[in-house]
Amino acid sequence: xxxxxxxxxxxxxxxxxxxxxxxxxxxxxxxxxxxxxxxxxxxxxxxxxxxxxxxxxxxxxxxxxxxxxxxxxxxxxxxxxxxxxxxxxxxxxxxxxxxxxxxxxxxxxxxxxxxxxxxxxxxxxxxxxxxxxxxxxxxxxxxxxxxxxxxxxxxxxxxxxxxxxxxxxxxxxxxxxxxxxxxxxxxxxxxxxxxxxxxxxxxxxxxxxxxxxxxxxxxxxxxxxxxxxxxxxxxxxxxxxxxxxxxxxxxxxxxxxxxxxxxxxxxxxxxxxxxxxxxxxxxxxxxxxxxxxxxxxxxxxxxxxxxx
Length: 308
Prior knowledge:
This protein is an alpha+beta fold. It has 2 domains: 1-155, Orthogonal Bundle (Arc Repressor Mutant, subunit A), CATH 1.10.10.10; 158-277, no CATH class. It has helices at residues 5-16, 39-49, 75-82, 86-98, 120-123, 158-163, 168-171, 202-208, 216-235, 240-243, 248-274, 281-304, and strands at 19-23, 55-59, 62-66, 70-72, 102-106, 113-117, 147-151, 180-183, 186-188, 192-195, 198-201. The strands form 4 sheets. Strands 8-9-10-11 form a 4-stranded antiparallel sheet. A hairpin with a 2-residue loop joins β10 (192-195) and β11 (198-201). The radius of gyration is 32 Å and the shape is elongated.
C-alpha cells in the first residue's frame, strides 16, 4: 500500500476522534479498593469529578457555586481519596498548574480550594467531534449519571504543544468566553495567553514578579507583547523551538524584572540630573580652610596698622 499525505491525514483524523466513556464508578470498584492512585488515575479522577454544568454544592454548611469544569479540592480530602500524603498531593497539583492543566483558586469568602480543569470542553464536549467513526459513541449534552468522557489526545504538555504548532485541531480551536484575539493566532483571557505553539500562565508570571510593583494589567501587557513577537516569527516560518523559550515563565519573569530594574535606574539618573550639583565634602572643607586663612590674614594686617 502506498502511503501518501492524504492517507496520513486520514489516519490522524481517526486517531484524534477516538473517545472512551469511563464510568466514574471505576474509582470505587471493589477490585481496586485500597489501591493507591497513580498520577494518571488522579488526573482522570479530577476530570470525572469536575462539574459538567454549573451547579451549587454544600461546603461546610455554606453553598458554593461551581462553574463547568470546576471541583472542590482540599488537600486532606484528595490525600485520603487518592491514598497519598498531603505533600504528594500539593506537589502534584503544583505540577498540573505549571503544565497549564489546572488552575487553583479559592471561592469568595469561603476559603474553599477550587480546582478548574483547563480546556475542560475538550474532555467533555457537548457535540460529537467532526470525523467521529461510524458506530462510535460520542459525547452527549452532558455525561450520563456516574460517567465521564475523556479523550486520549488532549492531555498534552507544553512541550508537546510546541511540537504540534501546525496541528489543525489546535490551530482552529474555538474562542471561549471572556477570551479575545490579540492577533497572529494569540488568544488572551484573564489567566492565560495561548497560541498553537505555546501557552503562558499569567498567575505564574505574576507570582514571579511581585517585587516589580507592576499591576496585573502591566504584567499581561508585557507578556502579550512577547507572545505576539513569538507568534509573528513562527508565522514567518521560524521553528517554534528556536523562538519560544523552553521555560516560558522563568524567561518572562526575568524579562519583566530586568525591564523594571532598568526603568528604576533610568528614573534615578534623571532625578539626580534634575537636582543642582552639591559640592563634595572635600570641596566644602577646602573652602572652609581658605575662608579661615583669609580671615586670619586680614586680622593680622589689621593689627599692624598704627593706631591714632
